[in-house]
Amino acid sequence: MIKAFLRIGLIILIVISLCFRIDEFIYVKTIPANVTFLTSDILGNFYVVQKNLLTKYDENGNIINTYDSKNKGEITSVDVSNPLKILVYYKDFNQIVFLDNTMSITGSPILLEELGISQSSLACTSYGNTFWVFDNTLSRLVRFDKNLVVQNQSDNLAQATNLSVPSLMIEKNGSLYISSPNSGIFIFDKFGTYNKILPIKDVESFQIIDNKLFYQSTNIIKNIDLSSYEENNIALPEIGASCYQLNKKMLYIATKTGISIYKTKQNQ
User: Fold this and answer.
1) Taking the chain, what is the end-to-end CA distance rounded to the nearest angstrom?
2) From CA 194, how far away is CA 244, in angstroms rounded?
3) 132 found inside a domain
C-alpha cells in the first residue's frame, strides 16, 4: 500500500513538473503605487497608468518622467512599442495623443471623430509610423498613416469572425493581435486581413515577447509558442497580482500595495 502511494505521489510530481515551468526571480524592491495597468518598452523601462497619470520608470523603479492628462480623462491604453513615439489612447474622448521619450506631447491630439470614426474601442501603433484603430460602430480595423490618411481597413469583423467586445490590440512581428475575452485572441496580418484565432478565452491583456504570447491566469503566467503552439507556465513569485509585465531581464508585478520588482534568472 505504501509503495502504491509513493508511486502515485511520484506520478503527481512528474505531471506537475511537466505542466509548470518555475522560473527563478530575485526580489529587488516594492514601490508604492495605485496601478490601473502596466506596460513596458524594449529599452527596459516600465510605465504605470493611474487613471489620468502616466509615469515612466527605469528598470530599477526610479521615476524618469510623468504625463498628466486631467483635461482628457482616464487613459484607456498606452502603446510603447516605439519608446520614442508613445501612443496614448482615450476611449471616452475618442482621441489619441503621441508622446516623445520625455513624455511630452508631440503634435496635436488626434480626434478620431474628425477621421470618420464616431466611436472607437481600441488603438495601437503600427509599422511605418502608422497606427490602428478599432472602429466600434462598424466593427472594423482602420489603419492611418502619419498624415491621417486611411491605408487599410477590414470588413465587418463581427460578421466575418464573431469578434466582439475587444479588450486589447497589439501589432508585433508583422501580425496584429486582438483579444476578445468572449471568443479568444484573433490574429491578423499587417494589412488587417484575418488569419486565425487562438481559442483562449477570458484574456483581457497579453504580451508578445519574441515569438511567444504571454497572458496571466490567476497566479500563473501562461505562454504559447506561436510557431509550435507548445504551452508553458511560469509561476508568479507573489499571489494577488492584478497585472504584470515581463521581459528578458525583469518582472514587474502590480498588487494592492504597489509594484514589486524582480530580476529574472537571466539577469543574475
Assistant:
1) 45
2) 28
3) yes
